[in-house]
Design a protein that fits this description.
This protein is α+β, with helices and mostly antiparallel strands. The chain has 5 helices and 4 strands. α3 packs across α5.
Length: 140
Amino acid sequence: MALPKANRLKSRKDFQAVFREGIRLHGSYLTLRALKPLCSTKPSLDTAIQTTQATDSLHLASTRIGISISTKVSKRAVVRNRIKRQITAALHNLLPKLSPGWRLVVIVKPTAAESKCVSPQFLQELEQLLAQAEVFDGNS
């Protein structure tokens, strides 16, 4: 069960913006990087500023989420993909509670594969990290 296309963080530019400007929160299995909506109001050097602002306003309608899992977590792609599916399922449950416009990156730590972490643990830790970042509706 994948995230809807409107809720996926895909481009390298978006990931870099979240890593450069976003806040960082740590858990035992996951690290959350979160970038608030309309965080960067600096004008870009692009000639098409109006088009970038138009696309940014379209993306504000939904929270976009990316998952980063390194080969340091596990050398086996099967293990990494299983962890990514479990995190996606947990995020799918939390998606209706999230405030619109956020850009989030969930980074998996190597302890997640070592301790045989399961979906309820990912869900609980994601809820804690999202609450700390004040991403839930009513907190922003």
